[in-house]
Write a structure and sequence with these properties.
Oligomer: single chain
Number of helices: 9
Radius of gyration: 18 Å
Mean pLDDT: 90
CATH class of the largest domain: Alpha Beta
Number of domains: 2
Helix content: 25-40%
Low-confidence stretches: none
Order of helices and strands: EHEEEHHEHHEHEEHEHEH
């Protein structure tokens, strides 16, 4: 196997499609279990909605009552999303997608601040990193954090030396922590991250990330892995 994605495979998965079209043999290994939540109180009306994870859109898909609550609070407010998969789901559900090319939470934050929004509804998971909330609040934006899913660690499958992939790919800081806790990455298996936030979290745990996608999308990840492989060959 060339690439092992440490997440669940989704229907018509774009990562499988694009990597296989480039000749890679890929596999998937879920390491996080998702529990969808419905907060007791409905969200307040807002000037903008921000989403940093595809899982948040999955939570809305899972529960129509929750989706209707959020839809009512959002009204005609613009939605901001990180990554093409998240933005695709926002548009598919009929929300007003504010076109942007945010590749990480920091990009998203800057776009929201530049829009002049005074209040934001943040559709979040438990746990999540506070950088987006803190940055918006420091800029004078009122943030309503609405936790609609929770992730918990699953057992990471062992990687036998004879069958281990050339690369594993980490998709979240939480997932990076789960992999680091197991200590089961073979020495010759290289590690890629879907973005800078995940890469930084992985390195903080001691995982040696050598490829980082510039955007949380298949094409960017393929390019990062190719460039890392080329660099390795030059140093041999």
């Amino acid at each position: 196997m060339d690439i092992l994605f440490y997440r669940e495979e989704r229907g018509n998965d774009s990562f499988r499609k694009q990597f296989e079209s480039e000749g890679y043999c890929v596999g998937f290994a879920p390491i996080l279990r998702t529990e969808f939540l419905v907060p007791e109180a409905p969200p307040h009306t807002t000037d903008a909605v921000v989403v940093t994870s595809w899982r948040a859109m999955e939570a809305l898909e899972h529960n129509m009552e929750l989706q209707n609550r959020v839809r009512e609070a959002a009204g005609d407010a613009p939605w901001y999303g990180v990554g093409s998969a998240t933005r695709l789901e926002i548009g598919r559900k009929g929300f007003y997608l504010q076109q942007n090319d945010a590749a990480c939470a920091a990009d998203l934050m800057n776009s929201v601040i530049a829009s002049g929004a005074k209040s934001v509804l943040f559709l979040a998971g438990d746990p999540h990193r506070p950088a987006l909330e803190n940055g918006l609040r420091e800029a004078g934006v009122t943030v309503q954090t609405y936790v609609i899913y929770r992730t918990t660690a699953m057992a990471v499958p062992p990687l036998p030396m004879s069958e281990s992939p050339r690369w594993i790919v980490l998709f979240s800081p939480r997932g990076a922590g789960v992999v680091a806790d197991t200590g089961r990455v073979p020495a010759h298996t290289r590690i890629a991250a879907i973005g800078n936030t995940t890469a930084r979290a992985a390195r903080e745990t001691g995982l040696p990330v050598t490829a980082v996608a510039s955007r949380p999308e298949p094409a960017s990840l393929i390019e990062a892995i190719r460039q890392s492989d080329k660099a390795l060959l030059r140093n041999i």
